[in-house]
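Structure tokens please, single chain.
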Amino acid sequence: MKAAGILSFGGPEVLRLLEVDTPVANENQVRVRVKAAGVQPFDLSVRSGWTPPGGAVRFPQILGNEFAGVVDQVGDAVTGFAAGDEVMGFQVLGCQAEYVVVAPDQLVKKPQRMPWEEAAVLSASGQTAHTA
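Here you go.
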């Protein structure tokens, strides 16, 4: 699959379109075909060399913490989501990709009338408001 990421720290010139393996959901995960992904100051910081507390940056590193898309794979132990569900979600890094695999507690169903681009960035806005 294609993903936006980095092979080393640096300025905008280190951004790459990467070709990486398509992830597979385990029994407790959901895989989402991403329709839109957020780009936030967090991504610039990681690209420049910052590592989030409790996190790890491993090259090649896919950027992005938020996304919206359509569920295409559901683990056997997951309830509440099915293939075809339109969702939006959050995960620290790895979201600027064609597919993302996450725990179901990191997803919510996307409001039907909400555009994909808005759904993809809503979690950062909510987290910012909550923190403030």
